[in-house]
């Protein structure tokens, strides 16, 4: 039957409300039948700013809470902070101390071989000294000795006690507790492209921050000079006492080294060169011996198995339990053996194809069997040939191993002879070198060290003393609040996007197309809850045939017809990845839309674990159904029930069986499906979800195709992807996917879906562009005696 023609009224409009004449590319049976509409690549990849707005509006209260709380808390915190002051003292560090004794004289304390201040390492060391705890303790002691005026009483008091009221300058431990606080106040930095060092101090007292900065500068200058003088004095005393001792030790070391060289006939350092050559040869022999040993170890298991491998029967299959799989790796990795095994596997596959068509005594089967025997003989010969080659290689490696071991032993013997001489020689050489270098360095420095100890030269001097600041530098309340506002905005947007990314459910057509590799058939909008007197929610499109929901179902119906226009599918399986995703509602809606097009449609409930269709159509529980037909108590056509919808028939589940999967796998069930497909134009099977049980997978093998249903904001991408993969693994025909329960109002605001509806007196009213404003009325769908409520459809103006 042509699904576009109604036997009562003639040619019908298609699901989009357009007449399709014969020969039109959109009519079944023509050469070109368009499939489901898909967007072009540039359009699909285009960025829509409305998506960002939709994500933020979706979590607007969370976004506003973060934006409001962040700046508010920051303002409440900074408004209570006291004013903060800052000042700095500057020091100049020269490249070197003044050379009073001329350019040839060098300072006895020389931290660098050249211009030491130009090195970053020395600079960082000095910065660490200024920020050290020892420096802070020295500064604290000087501040205790420095008197100042108490700003409240006008009395004299130590500067440290004014700076830290809890510090007692008379208690040494109390003064030590002030050191960490002083370390936190000071900041050391180097002026750009200069030798000026800035000592910056922050604090709450304008006068005291200047006092701390100046005290730090004076303390560092004094400590630097004191360190130089003390180091020079100590060096002068040490150099004078050590020089004569070093000379005596150096003379004795030279005599011992000369006697040893004369006794052992050693000229210069030839013993070292000879020892290096011996060690080089020994290392080369050892490396070659290790390499040969590894090869021997690798080949030994193979050689031990050769007696068994040579007589092993050639396998008759290429399965994973191949008897040749336990052969030594050297045999398994042989390129010739792999090729022979591949040929054997191809020959066996060819034989299996022939035996599936002909008997064993057929000439073609016999010829293929002889070819198999020939390949097996060739494979056995190849294994034996590889075995002989490996045995020969193994014997050659054993001989090579013996030769290398002998060479290593000879090199070891020669090295031991040289070791006994070189140990003593190197010891005497080290003693001589150890004494020669310090003797040369110490010689002649006695007079220079004594002069340097009496020269108060310093390369550090004060440039500018710190002055009390006239105005505070902080806290900057406006900047803090503005920064908090920017951070709150970024955090709010980031959190909204993070929650959106963590939501792993499918929501729109884009999500379905990214996750699945099957056509997108269409969507079924969210069906509003209906009063009890209107009947079940599943029959919504029967009561509202001109609603948006009904129109979307007709789009899905049309797309299914376009999937195979030349040979339309007669049996259709509707399933989902998980439970409660609107699978049964989608099955009923799709069956209703097909029945409205004039096709004889049978709706079959194959969910034998949780059947639902009998409740929707008000069929008594336990009435004869599909299980009764499989059991043989009734025939298939006897169990089919009519409904009040023209061309729509129903086959309920019937009594619930204990073994649904086994019933669906029986041959009788296959005959029942064939019988129903011949009796009706379309047969729609409502099945259990794929992720819960295997019934849907079994049904996919007896139907013409599968429609996969996903529920918006409920079905996860992973479950949907696994369900598709399970169906593809069984080579099931996939018609496409349907997105169910899509909220058009929220989608329209965020993504621009062209569907609209409005509320009136608490009820949904749907309207769309059409020239027909007549009121339609249909009776409720039911079966059995009793009155059925009348359903009326009121269109929007």
Secondary structural class: alpha/beta
| Shape category | flat
Q: What helical percentage do the residues reach?
A: 40-55%
Mean pLDDT: 76
What summary fits the major beta sheet? 8 strands, mixed
Structure annotation, total helices: 28
Question: Which stretches are poorly predicted, pLDDT < 50 over at least 5 residues?
Answer: 1-45, 111-117, 309-321, 748-797
Q: Could you give the order of strands across the largest sheet?
A: 9-16-15-10-14-11-13-12
Annotation, overall tally of beta strands = 20
N-end to C-end Cα span: 36 Å
Radius of gyration: 48 Å
Content of β-strand: 5-15%
Overview of the molecule:
By secondary structure, this protein is α/β, with parallel strands linked by helices. 52% of the residues lie in helices and 12% in strands. The chain has 28 helices and 20 strands. Strands 9-16-15-10-14-11-13-12 form an 8-stranded mixed sheet, with helices on both faces. A 4-stranded antiparallel sheet has the order 6-7-3-8. Strands 1-2 form a two-stranded antiparallel sheet. The relative contact order is 0.10.
Give keywords.
single chain, 797 residues, alpha/beta, 8-stranded mixed beta sheet, 28 helices, 20 strands, 52% helix, flat, disordered C terminus
Summarize the structure.
This protein is an alpha/beta fold and 797 residues long.
What's the topology here?
Elements: E1 5-6, E2 10-11, H1 41-45, H2 49-58, H3 60-78, E3 85-93, H4 120-130, H5 133-145, E4 147-149, E5 156-158, H6 159-163, H7 172-176, H8 179-185, E6 186-190, E7 196-203, H9 206-263, H10 270-304, H11 306-310, H12 329-332, H13 335-357, H14 363-442, H15 446-452, E8 460-464, H16 477-502, H17 509-515, E9 520-525, H18 540-543, H19 548-563, E10 571-576, H20 583-596, E11 601-605, H21 613-616, H22 626-631, H23 636-639, E12 641-642, E13 648-651, H24 660-664, H25 667-679, E14 682-686, H26 695-699, E15 705-711, H27 717-729, E16 734-742, H28 744-751, E17 757-760, E18 763-766, E19 776-779, E20 790-793
Parallel strand pairs: 9-16, 10-14, 10-15, 11-13, 11-14, 15-16
Antiparallel strand pairs: 1-2, 3-7, 3-8, 4-5, 6-7, 12-13, 17-18, 19-20
């Amino acid at each position: 039957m042509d699904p576009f023609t109604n036997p009562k009224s003639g040619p019908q409009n298609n699901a989009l409300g357009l007449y399709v004449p014969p020969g039109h590319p959109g009519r079944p049976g023509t050469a070109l039948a368009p499939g489901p509409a898909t967007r072009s690549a540039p359009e699909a990849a285009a960025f829509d700013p409305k998506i960002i707005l939709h994500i933020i509006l979706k979590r607007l209260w969370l976004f506003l809470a973060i934006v409001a709380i962040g700046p508010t808390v920051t303002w409440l915190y900074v408004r209570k902070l006291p004013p903060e002051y800052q000042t700095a003292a500057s020091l100049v560090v020269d490249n070197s101390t003044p050379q009073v004794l001329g350019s040839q004289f060098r300072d006895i304390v020389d931290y660098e071989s050249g211009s030491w201040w130009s090195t970053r390492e020395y600079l960082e060391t000095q910065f660490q000294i200024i920020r050290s705890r020892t420096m802070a303790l020295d500064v604290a002691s000087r501040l205790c000795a420095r008197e100042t005026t108490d700003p409240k009483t006008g009395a004299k008091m130590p500067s440290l006690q004014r700076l830290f009221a809890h510090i007692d300058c008379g208690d040494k431990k109390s003064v030590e507790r002030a050191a960490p606080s002083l370390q936190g106040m000071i900041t050391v930095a180097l002026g750009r492209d200069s030798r000026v060092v800035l000592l910056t101090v922050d604090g709450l007292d304008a006068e005291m921050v200047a006092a701390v900065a100046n005290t730090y500068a004076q303390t560092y200058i004094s400590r630097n000079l004191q360190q130089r003088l003390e180091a020079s004095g100590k060096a002068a005393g040490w150099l004078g006492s050590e020089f004569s001792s070093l000379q005596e030790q150096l003379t004795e070391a030279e005599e011992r080294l000369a006697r040893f060289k004369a006794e052992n006939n050693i000229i210069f350092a030839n013993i070292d060169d000879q020892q290096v050559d011996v060690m080089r040869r020994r290392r080369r022999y050892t490396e070659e011996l290790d390499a040969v040993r590894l090869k021997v170890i690798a080949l030994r298991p193979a050689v031990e198995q050769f007696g068994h491998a040579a007589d092993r029967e050639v396998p008759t299959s290429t399965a994973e339990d191949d008897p040749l799989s336990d052969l030594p790796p050297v045999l398994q990795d042989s390129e010739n053996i792999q090729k022979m095994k591949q040929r054997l596997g191809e020959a066996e596959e060819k034989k299996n194809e022939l035996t599936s068509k002909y008997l064993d005594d057929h000439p073609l089967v016999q010829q293929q069997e002889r070819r198999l025997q020939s390949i097996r003989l060739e494979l056995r010969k190849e294994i034996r040939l590889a075995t002989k080659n490996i045995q020969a290689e193994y014997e050659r490696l054993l001989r090579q191993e013996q030769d290398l071991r002998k060479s290593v032993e000879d090199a070891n013997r020669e090295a031991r002879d040289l070791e006994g001489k070189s140990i003593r020689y190197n010891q005497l050489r080290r003693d001589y070198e150890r004494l020669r270098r310090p003797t040369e360095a110490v010689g002649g420095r006695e007079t220079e060290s004594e002069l340097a100890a009496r020269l108060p030269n310093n390369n550090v001097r004060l440039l500018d003393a710190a002055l009390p600041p006239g105005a505070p530098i902080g806290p900057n309340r406006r900047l803090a609040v503005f920064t908090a506002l920017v951070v709150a905005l970024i955090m709010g947007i980031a959190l909204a996007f993070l929650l959106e990314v963590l939501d792993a459910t499918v929501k729109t057509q884009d999500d379905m197309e990214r996750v699945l590799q099957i056509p997108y058939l269409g969507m079924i909008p969210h069906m509003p809850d209906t009063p009890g007197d209107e009947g079940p929610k599943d029959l919504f499109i029967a009561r509202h045939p001109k609603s948006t929901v009904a129109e979307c179902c007709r789009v899905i119906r049309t797309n299914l017809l376009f999937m195979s226009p030349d040979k339309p599918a007669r049996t259709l399986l509707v399933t989902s990845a998980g439970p409660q995703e609107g699978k049964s509602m989608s099955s009923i809606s799709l069956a209703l839309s097909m029945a409205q097009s004039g096709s004889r449609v049978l709706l079959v409930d194959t969910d034998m674990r949780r059947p639902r269709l009998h409740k929707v159509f008000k069929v008594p529980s336990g009435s004869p159904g599909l299980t009764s037909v499989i059991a043989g108590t009734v025939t298939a056509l006897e169990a089919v029930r009519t409904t009040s919808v023209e061309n729509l028939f129903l086959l309920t589940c019937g009594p619930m069986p204990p073994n649904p999967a086994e019933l669906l796998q029986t041959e009788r069930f296959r005959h029942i499906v064939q019988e129903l497909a011949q009796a009706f134009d379309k047969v729609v099977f409502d099945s259990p979800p794929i992720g819960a049980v295997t019934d849907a997978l079994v049904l996919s093998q007896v139907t013409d195709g599968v429609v996969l249903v996903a529920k918006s904001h409920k079905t996860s991408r992973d479950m949907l992807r696994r369900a598709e993969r399970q169906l593809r693994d069984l080579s099931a025909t996939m018609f496409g996917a349907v997105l169910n329960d899509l909220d058009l109002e929220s989608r329209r605001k965020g993504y621009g879906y062209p569907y609209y509806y409005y509320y009136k007196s608490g009820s949904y009213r749907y309207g769309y562009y059409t020239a027909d404003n007549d009121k339609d009325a249909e009776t409720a769908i039911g079966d059995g005696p009793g009155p059925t409520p009348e359903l009326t459809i009121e269109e929007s103006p």
